[in-house]
């Protein structure tokens, strides 16, 4: 610690260079934060999926429905504790660009199965009591300025006509990664008004008593309905979400490649700045050594300088990235979960530290090996 | 007399290590920028090439995609009677009523399920879409449970080869042919007989989701639109096929563009920092040289121009490397989910000359911005003090 003023003095000597180097690292870490956020958004749902929940869908595809009668039959399967269902509505609010998912849900069971969504009890009761009631996620409600009691018209694209809903409840997620952009309403309301597809639901979510039984239950469900008119595919919620994310394709790979390019470039920039700094100071380092500073101390001093630059830059970059994600989804609804978690932020700082160490290593070792005679000769 | 450019070239060569850092920074930025653009462009081109200006697509009024539309047989007949629609030699109107369902099949790359569009078509489809070419095997026989598979679907999914059997909706369908439309979205689809598909999926008989009609000429679109929307027996929307597919590409290509620009802009700031750093150390290291030049009579403006040129040189080399690095991506096939149709779509990256020119312009801007301030410092350097350091 006693060398800190000395290190700071050295950094202040070439202010422009120090600021620029800090700037490059900040930019790179900002980008890193952004890419991690985008990656999380594209993998949305995988991390928050419940381990004790299974998704049962029509074997042909998620688009094909399943009969409502399956609810009772699913409950008879051993280890199944709760069964709920949801159906995709696919409506448009005001304009086609305003995309958010709307689900027609089973109001008796949905909240029990998805208990991670927080809804005040009185609001939930009001929702259940109102046939045209609806629940909106917090971020969705904020985006369109909806309040409890508002009447929201939604134009059906699958089920024709304009459907009106009363906002009765607003839910919050328990973690920052929760999707707060959903819109739920009564399945009964959908079923009685729609012109076709009565008695059919989109998919079931089944809760099992113990996550260890998940695989076994999934197989039992698919066996049960094999060779029927409505065959099923059952998978854990995590596998379901992961499968969905994989359909987005090679984007993960692309994001990772960009990240690698950026970090490599950044390493070069910091490394070259540090090398220049050491090269300019060779005579001084010689003087330090003459005065009796040990090789290890000189190594430490140069390394500390580089690590300090990297950490300050990294802190700024990660902080800016966090601020940016707080502003919300830049694409307007396509990435509902736009969140930079503390783990990712720590990872970013760790990366900055690693970059500082690596970039400082070669100049620091050069400085350590410097022979006093050679160094002083250049004075 | 201006300072010769060879001076800059040699200076860059003399301090190649620091220059290389700037070059790589700019190359990386331009490369990422172009790769994102190529991806968005490729995705868009794939969908736009699916539509033909000769065709109109007719769906139920208010439907935003085929998935949410319905048209019955009677309506198909009424549409077919319109004089704007072309006819085959034997007088049959060139309309193709189609049904689209989605099936989940394992991807060849990961083994996880992805959604495939299974399109039920009628025999007229080959006349309505002349771009469809059967490359292997034959077209399906109407009334038989047979499939023809798009070229990209064959490579994207497991077990879609000619001669294999695919299970859809509780029935086995042999693959009898492979078709190609030259890289459009149809190449990711599977086609079969529309009526049969309705039966197998227990959809109501004689209900289709869309009608694609070939018009006598592209300029008939408005006339057809007016006629069909005015007809009291129909409640339909008429869209040019190309416009319909362009709109389908909007969501994903916007996403890629927004993210691409965001990433490229941030990287550009980083690259400019790198360039500034390089140029500032260049100016500092060459203080004596600069002072000597000034003493020899080169003006401040000339010195400044010389340094901006040097920065520009570095940036352009970086930009060119970035462009070249992206070039192999041209034609690289990637797949992603198209949210608007809820199905997986294979597309090829598309690098265009205009895009590469844009990349070079981008590099130029970074070079000028990164060189201006250091050049200014060089020009303002007091000659006497700099020379005294000799």
General description of the model:
The complex is a heterodimer of chains A (379) and B (390). With 379 residues, chain A is an alpha+beta fold. Chain A has helices at residues 4-13, 15-42, 70-75, 110-113, 121-129, 138-144, 187-193, 214-224, 237-247, 251-280, 282-290, 295-326, 342-369, 372-377; strands at 53-58, 66-67, 80-88, 91-92, 102-105, 133-137, 151-156, 162-171, 183-186, 200-201, 203-208, 232-236. In chain A, a hairpin with a 5-residue loop joins strand 7 (151-156) and strand 8 (162-171). In chain A, helix 2 (15-42) crosses helix 12 (295-326) and helix 10 (251-280) packs parallel to helix 13 (342-369). Chain B folds into 2 domains: 5-48 and 248-388, no CATH class; 62-234, no CATH class. Chain B has helices at residues 5-14, 16-48, 73-80, 125-128, 151-156, 194-200, 221-230, 241-285, 287-296, 300-326, 353-380, 383-388; strands at 55-60, 71-72, 95-106, 113-121, 133-137, 147-150, 165-168, 171-180, 190-193, 207-208, 210-214, 236-240, 333-338, 343-348. The model of chain B has no long low-confidence stretch (mean pLDDT 85). The interface between A and B is large, with 56 and 59 residues.
